[in-house]
Design a protein that fits this description.
alpha+beta, four-stranded mixed beta sheet, Glutathione_S-Trfase, Glutathione-S-Trfase_C-like, Glutathione-S-Trfase_C_sf
Length: 207
Amino acid sequence: MYTLYFAPGTCALASHIALADSGLPYEVKRLNFAEGEQRSEAYLKINPKGRVPALVTDKGALSETVAILAFIAQAAPLAKLAPLDDPFLFAKMQAFNAYLSSTVHVAHAHGRRGTRWADEPSSHADMLRKVPQTMGECFRLIEDDFLAGSYVLGEQYSVADPYLFTIAGWLEGDKVDIAAFPRVQAHYERMKARPAVQKALAEEKAA
């Protein structure tokens, strides 16, 4: 049994969807960020970073979405959630996921977690104003250069797809119109129809 720690509206949704796709046995535990549960002594023993997601396995806990998604894909090879037999294509998937993690997520976080980078309220306001531009630029690159077909890798579904779906879901809150990116929007709608996505969203609502 795997245990995924999550908070609503976070990138943990990508790992949750991957677990729902995988067929692996799992449970989810919700952290109350408003009450600072992510900084509790109990949770910091699981993930000293005090963030989500964290996935507890029989060998220990994993953090970072890119690592967790790759682990799920490799732990459930029959689910075919990654091109495990093609090192180059697997690396392309990892490169895309790393871009979402290191660049797109950070651009989004500048609007909501400005205190990570600056102390002055004027600096926070400046970062917030920049978010629509930076997120728009990121998704323009995804739209024009990175989205290979119906799914991130073309016609082959992979754990990159729930990650893109999750972050694309933040665009409206970042004042970016997803309709400006028709291929991304089509991907988002296609993902919403998948049973694993519906299952994960229902489980997060019920947790």
